[in-house]
């Protein structure tokens, strides 16, 4: 074992932040530089270091000795196994995205700014994974969101990209206001913002204060106003639902994903979604214990709220995806449906202990697998855009004969997203299904099965077009971009390797949920 100072626990986030600062420094020295290889290399190195540190700390058992994690800044940030699990997801997805962007933005200006914004947003995602306070989480969430708005509108000559960025910004501003108001109500009701302090206030029924790192009841022990707390929790659910593109706060996602550069669509639909869910998992598993809330009365039953959200998100996302005529928009609505699957992690909760650990770890495992297969699918769209392939399903006709390796990778992604045993997606969905059976949530189990079957229909349309249909016109592929190809094939290999490796992933996720 190597003894490191406590601040080194933030090495995954610091690697991303340092790489972004190096990019900005390089841009300030030579503002007109178009050395895409150097800029992409710095970005890949920073994201790989982030992923490597997260993997190293998970393997070394960081935060497992005393089950509390590495607490920093008066426990405002806590790096434990769950934080490291999500930091690994962010680092891996960011690596694939910046690698693919090497070819995608070669002809565009402001390349250093592009990579720096990606890494700054990823830094916010890593910090959000370790947030142990509603205030810290809000600041980290804004660090995720602000660069994302600019990235969606990066193609300034493309009206669709600018329009998508504006819509994303406006809806994001409203959701941030709702989330901030919800946080203020929780603070008004409990007197604290740290997750453990909020939980202590709910369980004891008295407003809390934090003094020298310890949590104490206020003088006079005033009762917690549960009605105000319930409204605050409801608003926080709304803010989380926006960030995870859950129904009915999903309207921004198809517009943003379709208008943004394809690598950014992959980034937002995978890493950004994971960041939203880690906030939800931490806040509701730690700060708002459902057993104490129901015992106190007057507050919202957030498990039932997430059950309704999960079912609605699954059905609306998948049915909307089945009616789309463009591949990128289909994947956008598909990502909404997958948000519904992950919501099972909070909807299939039966209290605390092993039941809570099982449901949370199922959601975490699906997010990790989803990070590779969904990122790979969007990066394939970026590859198709690079080749000048159209946007509609029929434009992909016969592409498998001209680019068999890339199309084979896309087939792996799509069938794994549908839940077929060709990739890790089958096992992650089965794990979610087991979590629903564990608590007898038959409606969630039925919704999961029905929507997985429906998704196979629209995913198969792309596979059929690539391998079975004849091309509708002439098409010549003259080059095979190294960065995009490497990212797509690499994501496909990991998706397949997650079949034998899923047990290890689920064990780490379950252990992280138990420690939480």
From TrEMBL:
One biological process GO term for this chain? ATP synthesis coupled electron transport
Question: Which keywords does this chain's UniProt record carry?
Answer: Membrane, Transmembrane, Transmembrane helix
Domain NADH:quinone oxidoreductase/Mrp antiporter transmembrane, by residue range, is 131-454
**Does Cytoplasm appear among the keywords?**
no
Q: Which residues form a coiled coil?
A: none
Q: Name one GO molecular function term.
A: NADH dehydrogenase (ubiquinone) activity
GO cellular component terms, A-Z: membrane
Q: How does it sit in the membrane?
A: Multi-pass membrane protein
Location(s), subcellular: Membrane
Which residue ranges traverse the bilayer? 6-26, 38-58, 82-102, 137-156, 168-189, 223-242, 274-296, 302-323, 330-351, 363-384, 405-427, 439-459, 480-502
PANTHER family listed in its UniProt record:
NADH DEHYDROGENASE (PTHR22773)
- HAMAP family membership: NDH1_NuoN_1
Task: State the name under which the record lists this protein.
Answer: NADH dehydrogenase subunit N
